From TrEMBL:
Residues 235-368 form the RNase H type-1 domain. It holds the Pfam family RNase_H. One of its GO terms (molecular function) is RNA-DNA hybrid ribonuclease activity. The lineage of its organism: Eukaryota, Metazoa, Ecdysozoa, Arthropoda, Hexapoda. It comes from the Eukaryota. This is RNase H type-1 domain-containing protein. It comes from Parnassius mnemosyne (clouded apollo). SUPFAM superfamilies: Ribonuclease H-like.
Length: 540
């Protein structure tokens, strides 16, 4: 394969044997063409992903089928995985929008949405991000891993200084189809994550094998009041050190409190550090303090971070683990060689345990604060979380700007980007229930007003009373054919909102009920609303 506009007329010979020239070749699952436009590879991805999409299509309809959580999991595993692989290569291809069509089809199957439903609304409802953001997320995570592992990678990708300052990609640019080129992404990563830990060898392989497998002493007893804990400490003659970590929008701090010396100190960390990193660094500082304490060989470090205690217990060879955990293991191993026993113990927070309350206040107030933000490097896992937050912020901006054109109704129902889809917490909900509520939330359903807007039916009037425009608000509030069912709906909703209005005045009770938009914001109204729809309109 020749990557050039000038094709040699006499061919290519090797030991007087002609070498055939091809226009494309598959290497490690990626179809590379001689123009590097990756059109053939994208078509190859589409062919493979459609097979998985057909499986999903066979598992669910509008009123029947698998749970949307299962469908989302299947989509991510057998369809989107094809999009993720080698996306770094084809991310700037002109044909990349073909993949968006495949994802949009999958989102309609998962959510049970109509073809007219806005794409951005379906992405938010299912919590499956746009593919352009997904590619940006994967590329940034991969490049961060490369840059943190080798200082020379940045110089190879960006061998010369950029003439202009690098700015954060905006949601508006992504909405218009712009995608940043690789050198700009690398330069941005290098500026945003200057303090990330950089090492050519993973921390789990720096220390000896005997150090890594060294068993951490964990005191498994649980104490929920201060008196019992102090009695236990006194009976076992422990020298106690309390640790804590605190994170807010303004700071990330670790703190250590020596209950024997009545001395506490806090440590200011990089803002990108997680609260878990703050907790483990506090434990590391407590271990360092032990080296300066003489005439004691039995120490107890008390923390309210159960995740840190569990991580120390299960720590083995894993490059994804926080590097500070291995530093803690190394100190524990060295103390054990000297005959110094150090144990860890979990204590519940905010239970009146004096030492824990003091160290918590030290961390929040920054007592005797020492700035170590430039010394303590940010773990790679914390940077991943920071990248996830940045991409989610782009998603919110992306979604808000798109609402200016379409999806305004859904924007009033779902005002913020959800942590998870609303139906994830349902245990015994039918497929019909989920799709009906989804269509109500989208504002795109089979009511006459919407079908007439699409040109499917001629009249937009209600097919039951034929007196008014047949939209959702009409069916719920004013259609005279559903007066009895409306009374039941009002009664059930009134019980939910604990409305103390008499039964004799149903119009007054109805006026006190939430609007359709308010009903769809609150999951507690979904069951009576679904019952009303099934007993009146039938299906949406």
């Amino acid at each position: 394969m020749i990557f050039s506009k000038d094709f040699p007329s006499n061919g290519i010979l090797y030991n007087n044997h002609p070498i055939s020239v091809v226009s494309n070749h598959k290497f490690l699952g990626v179809v590379i063409d001689n123009k590097l436009c990756f059109n053939l590879h994208i078509n190859h991805i589409i062919t493979n992903s459609l097979k998985g999409l057909n499986i999903i299509r066979c598992l669910a309809g509008v009123t029947w089928g698998a749970d949307p959580k299962v469908l989302s999991m299947l989509y991510k595993s057998i369809v989107r995985s094809h999009f993720d692989y080698s996306c770094l290569a084809y991310s700037n291809s002109s044909c990349v929008k073909k993949l968006d069509i495949i994802q949009n089809k999958a989102l309609r199957i998962i959510s049970g949405a109509m073809c007219s439903t806005p794409i951005r609304a379906m992405e938010v409802e299912t919590k499956i991000m746009p593919l352009c953001l997904r590619r940006l997320l994967l590329i940034e995570r991969y490049l961060l891993k490369l840059v943190s592992g080798n200082d020379n990678v940045l110089k190879k990708i960006v061998p010369f200084p950029l003439q202009c300052s690098v700015q954060q990609t905006s949601g508006g640019e992504l909405l218009q189809g712009y995608f940043p080129v690789l050198p700009l992404i690398v330069q941005q990563m290098n500026e945003d994550f200057k303090n990330v830990i950089k090492q050519s060898k993973w921390t789990c392989y720096i220390y000896p094998y005997s150090c890594i497998i060294f068993e951490t002493n964990i005191v498994t007893k649980n104490f929920f009041n201060n008196c019992e804990l102090l009695s236990f400490i006194s009976d076992n003659n422990y020298y106690t050190l309390y640790t804590d970590g605190s994170k807010s929008e303004l700071f990330v701090r670790s703190a250590v409190y020596d209950s024997q010396c009545k001395f506490g100190q806090s440590f200011l960390l990089d803002p990108k550090c997680s609260v878990f990193t703050a907790e483990v660094y506090a434990a590391l500082e407590a271990l360092k303090r032990i080296a300066h304490i003489n005439s004691f060989n039995n120490f107890l470090i008390l923390t309210d971070s159960l995740s840190m205690v569990q991580s120390l217990t299960n720590l083995r060879f894993d490059f994804k683990k926080n590097y500070i955990l291995y530093n803690i293991k190394q100190l524990l191993f060295s103390y054990a060689k000297k005959g110094i026993q150090v144990s860890f113990m979990w204590i519940p927070s905010h239970r009146g345990i004096t030492g824990n309350e003091i160290v918590d206040k030290i961390a929040r107030d920054g007592t005797n604060m020492l700035d170590v933000s430039s010394i303590v490097k940010v773990p790679l896992t914390d940077c991943y979380q920071s990248i996830d937050n940045q991409v989610n912020s782009l998603w919110v901006e992306f979604w808000k700007q798109d609402q200016e054109q379409k999806g305004k109704w859904y924007g009033t129902v779902q005002e913020k980007l959800p942590v998870a889809p609303w139906y994830n917490k349902l245990k015994m909900a039918s497929r019909d229930f989920v799709t009906t509520i989804n269509r109500l939330r989208f504002g795109h359903s089979t009511v006459p007003a919407h079908l007439a807007r699409l040109g499917i039916v001629e009249s937009s009037y209600c097919t039951f009373c034929n007196n008014s425009v047949g939209d959702i608000e009409h069916f719920i509030f004013t259609c005279e054919c559903f007066s009895f069912d409306r009374l039941i709906l009002v009664s059930e909703i009134s019980d939910i909102v604990q409305n103390q209005v008499t039964v004799q005045d149903p119009s007054r009770r109805l006026s006190n009920c939430p609007t359709p938009g308010d009903m769809l914001k609150n999951r507690s109204y979904y069951v009576p609303l679904y019952k009303f729809i099934k007993n009146t309109v039938g299906k949406l």
